[in-house]
Prior knowledge:
The protein has one domain (35-154): Cathepsin D, subunit A, domain 1, CATH 2.40.70. Strands 1, 2, 3, 4, 5, 6, 7, 8, 9 and 10 form a 10-stranded mixed β-sheet that branches. The chain contains 2 helices and 10 strands; from the N terminus they run E-E-E-E-H-E-E-E-E-H-E-E. It is globular. It is mainly beta.
Amino acid sequence: MTSSTTRATSPVEWFIQPAPVRGHSIPVARLLVPLYFGTSPPGPATAKEACWLDTCAPLSVVPLHVHHQRLHWQRIPGIQTSWSGQICDLGRIDFWLQIDQPPYLWGPMSLLAKFPRSDPPGNAVPVLLGLEFFLAHQAEFQLLQPPRDGTILLP
C-alpha cells in the first residue's frame, strides 16, 4: 500500500504591464504572491499584502509604509543592514500563505526580513519575498509561461 502525500500549493500570479521607454512599449513582469501578516497588537492573519516574489533578493523586505505601526514583528537586536539606500533593522514576522486547499491559509510561518526605517524616494514598493523563505521552509517554486500562474509548493 502506498501513501499519498498532498502538498499545499500557493498561487504565484504573473503581473505584466507595459512601460513606456522613449516611444517604445516594453513589457515589465512581476510575480505576485498574496501574503497575510499578523497585525499589531499580535492577532490573527488579517493584513493581506500582494507581494513581489524577488528571486534576486536573498532576504525579504517589508517596507516602512507596510509595517509601520501596523504589523507585529520582532527586531533581532544588534543587526542593521540596508536596502535601496535606507537603514534597516533585521527581524522576524509571522505570515500565512494563501493556499488552494482548505483551510485556505498555511501558517503561521516565520519570515526573516529587512524592516527599513524609512521608505526610499519614488513610488511605494510592496513587500519583497526573498529566497531565504524557500530555504527556511523547504518550499519549491514552479514558474509556468505566462499567462499561466506559477505555484509555491510547501512540504
